Amino acid sequence: MKLNKISAMFSSSKNKANNITIFGATLTAILTMPAAFAADAEQVAAEVDTSEIEVIAVRGIFGSLKAANLLKRTDARIVDAIVAEDIGKLPDNNIAEALQRITGVSIESDFGVGESVTIRGVSENLILLNGRSTAGPGRGGISLDDFPSSFLKTVEVIKSPTPEMIEGALGGTVNMQTVRPLELSEPLVAITLDGEYADKTENVAPNFTAAIGDNWDLGENGIFGASANISYQDRELRRDEYFNKVDLQDDIDINGDGIVDVSGGPNGKYLRRTESTVEQKIEERERTAYGLSLQWAPTNEDLNIYVDMNATELDGGQAAYSILDVGGSVSPRSDSYYDSNGQLHNYDLTGVLTIPKTWSDFTTNETTSHAIGAEWNVTDNIELFAEYAISKSEERQTASEFNLRPIERTDPTLNLVTHTSTGSSTSGDGIPSYMFEDTGMLTNPDNLVFREFFHKTLDTDNEEQALRFDFKINDIGVDFVTAVKAGVRFTDRDYSSNRFDLKPNGDTLKDAYKKAKNADGLYSPTWIDNPIIADSFKTINMSNSFDQTGIAGQNDLLTYNVYDANQLQDAEATYALVQQMLAGTTYAMNGSLADNMVEDTGAYKFINEKTSAIYAQFHLDFEDITAVVGGRYIQTELESSIVDSVDANGKKVLNTGKNDYSDFLPSLNVTYTLSEETLVRFAAAKVMRRADFDELSPALSIDNSLVTGTQGSYQLEPYRVTQYDLSVEHYFEDGGIVSAALFYKDVQSFTQTDSSCLADSSTVNGQNTTQWNNICLLDTAGESQGDIVNATQDQGLAYVDAEKAAGRTGIAIETDVNGGSGEVRGLELGYQQQFDFLPGLWSGFGVNANYTYADSEQPDGNPLLNISKHTANTQLYWEGEELQFRLAYNWRDRYLDEQSTKRVQTVGALGYNVFNQNDPSADSYDPTVGNSYREARGQFDFSASWDINENFTVVANAVNITGEPIEYTSELGSVWAYSEADRRYTLGVRAKF
Q1: 26, 96, 487, 515: which could form a disulfide with 114 (CB 3.0–4.6 Å)?
Q2: What does the DSSP assignment read for 525-566?
Q3: 985 confidence band (pLDDT: 50, 70, 90)
Q4: What is the Cα–Cα distance from 319 to 497, expressed in whole angstroms?
Q5: Strand pairing report for 811-818 and 708-711
């Protein structure tokens, strides 16, 4: 039997503990070889008999897949991987989008771009860089779309941990690995320049990446190596969203015969769709990333010392328009009907009003990950490793909002008359047709006034320092123990969040249109054609709106007159305009924007978290059975601080809560070599993940309307999971594999959301009641309560305003608490083969396909979030000497996307039309109320490349070729939201010298 050159290096069982390290160096050496690399490859493993060896060329699609298979085969853990097809070229331009080709992995996207992964249905995963922590605004690490894929040589997805690994992953750990300079077999210069076209924004985004590296023999001073990377991207994307509020109402007479028509919905109720909303957002994102790696190996010691430095700078934001249609009473038409879910279609809403909004959200973020470390083989038997790492994320979010209100023009304005109309909804293919009886509802300046201007800044800092020491003994004198590894790791993390709001005269500009009075005590509204602001308005009607979903006819919500989002991004200029509008009124503002920014001390968060970990693991070898067994013990000390008061000097007086806990995480990974081609693996482990920082702070975060908010708790325990894996892997021919795996996760302490109605005196004057049916009502003024009670349709806005004046409206607060247990169980199947046994051109074809089945359950009977029962991925490719083509398809089944969703908050399987998912003793208890599902969706992606010569390659990619939108449905199957983003097409050139 032939061995390939790489796999021969791992054939000795005594070397299995070192397989990953050897593989990394070998892979990098091969990646840097030119086309005629066979002669140099002889030096990679000179000790191996080359007469029975064929060389793996890690170039091209099959070379990448074959190398990933080898990594999987030689690892003691259950691992899948993506390997670069060449230096700086992962199979996809985005790390998350590349990982979705792996068995058991699905992605979450933002603006159609992959940003995070779920592994075996679990989203609480850990992102590492060269085995160490990364920093982002949250707990899991850097977003996968913020780190350039071109910096990486491999990306591992580790599904069964070992004790030496950093804790914090429930589904799996994603470990991104970069090229180290001493791994280079020759000097390297690689450059990529391409342009990405987005079809909604019709924008071409430049993308540039360069890498350079070499190492030098310094004689008796050893070998020194250096490599550097730089990447720049400036893209513009758009997302179109259409959604409704859906609730349940008693069945009505829809055909006018005087008899109530039965809808077939639960509890004698039909599904009503109101509050039609269009949101169109354009995101601009500029990313600059840097990487530097230095490495030195002295001659007289088996030692290497390294310094790794990586930084990413992000600048960009979202310019968005939101058109909200509010209120109205259902009026059936002759074409009205109920569908099979009990939802009413084709009807009028009389008395609706519209709320046009303009948003601007600009974010700057600087993320760094630096490390200095050393690896020292003290003797042939003892290895030491030490590393100090610091990762940091500094983010500033600047958000502004400029809102309008439909008020009929009068002069003078003695009364504020809300302008309403009748909206007609007609269903069909795609989003519904929606037409106003008043065709100028959203464009006529006689009906639109300035309502309010909000501005805030949010600063978030997240820094972790980590120190670890590890040692390894390769021979302890016991035949079946091939190695013992142990170590310690200490971390110190600080997280802080601070918010400032525009509050001239001590309050926000909420509802300025009715609160700002002139010197005569009269209303002083500003219509949008006022000379002060008229030039800052424009009419929006995007020609390619919802071109993927389709529209069932004319939709008046897609043409609107709004404040220019680009103007809003200049907050200083917008503030100056608002200052002119309000001059001479009771809302007159003095000073600059900065002068009127006030810190929201109630939103301040500071968290310090210290961890100490110690581990030991044993590498065992019983001929055909090898194993890694051991445990990791971690202590966590948490301090969470909020502002208790502010003293006379303006200094914050903090109230600090503490929570200390410890975890022991045993793990076992066993591999049984059934034959030379077949491996059977079993793994068992306990894993944990600490709650995210927002969940650990009791600071309140309340929206501008004083309607909803969130609050955390420092007493939250971490997620704890016990997991088991059983897999079979059969390797055949040249790089082929058939695999199957069973997995089971017992989730012992996940979090769930509790809702309550918070009494707050600020609601009397500051709460916005436009969406009155979302406001929670209090039984007694000034007393918070656990139940969420909303006004009925019959009570309406007038009732809610009266309750508000009496102090009996509150703020609906969501709080995460530790819940019960849950389960995830599933099956993974994988298949990969190159059809090189076929004649001629057909031998260039190959396939890589996988399927995952996952089933889950919470204590209340709901599935766990983000878990599709069925997921499938397929790649069909062809490659020759110069050309490569790949068509990839990714599909996932319907899954529970969110619970307690505001727009379907009262829709549940039992049809009570009451939001109660927390109190099983209540008559209206329904654990499914507020559930929102993302419907099944598949996506085609395509890539191609042409090697002009050994130095230059033309590359092309297309993402979401067929333009597949996303649909969201309620527990009863009614569609309540649509979302779609750009198709993306990339064309560029790569050069390597």
Answers
A1: 96
A2: --BTTSTTTGGGEEEE--TTTTTTT-BSS-BGGGSEEEE-HH
A3: very high
A4: 24
A5: parallel
